[in-house]
Amino acid sequence: MKQMAEQPRQTHSERPVLIIGWMEYVDLPDLGLLDLKAKIDTGARTSAIHATDITTFKKGDEDWVRFTTHATEQAEFVTLESRVHSSRSIKNTSGVPEERIVIRTKFRLARRMWTIDLSLTDRKNMTFGLIVGRTALKNHSIAVHTRRALLTKGRPNQSRKAEKDLP
Question: Structural domains in the chain?
Answer without folding.
Answer: 18-51+84-145 (2.40.70.10)
